[in-house]
Amino acid sequence: MEILSMVKRLIFIVTFLMTLLIYSCSRRTHPAKTSSEGVTKNTDSPSTTKAIAKPKTKTVLPQVIVVNDSAAHRSVDGRLYYDVMGHRYWRNNKDGKYYLFNKSMYNNPDFKKPG
Q1: In this structure, what DSSP letter does residue 57 have?
Q2: Alpha-helical runs (H) found in the chain
């Protein structure tokens, strides 16, 4: 008798799981349709709508920064530099501050390699 009740219980569990599987697979979700065109321009109408583009704000970088030398990197020739948002600052050997790169640094002895 025990085996018979265990087989009935197993059949009930398998039937329940199959029913649950069929029910969960038959459920369908239909996402709402969205318009991929966005704003359309109607040239026939006098009141056309135009998308207003916001101007990009330009980031103002300082000309001089103070950085701890342990955070800076060393170039191949031994000079220290620091990069901020794609701009390179070079260390002035005279005052220890970092200056945004410009062409006048080539002739300035304060920016030459130490040694």
Answers
A1: P
A2: 2-26
- Single out the residue of 89, 88, 94 nearest to residue 109, CA to CA: 94
Residue 8 main-chain phi, psi, to 5 deg? -65, -40
What amino acid occupies position 79? R
Residues 22-41 pLDDT 10s: 877 766 666 667 665 555 55
Which residues face 72 on adjacent strands?
none
Strand locations in 7-94 (E): 64-65, 73-74, 80-84, 87-91
Given a contact cutoff of 8 angstroms between Cβ atoms, the answer to whether 64 and 110 are in contact is no
Q: Do 57 and 76 meet the contact criterion of CB atoms below 8 Å apart?
A: no
Predicted TM-score (pTM) of the model is 0.50
Measure Cα distances from 31 to 23, 28, 60, 77, 91 in Å.
Answer: 20, 10, 45, 61, 58
Domain boundaries, the chain: 64-106
Instruction: Extract the tokens encoding 47.
Output: 């009141």
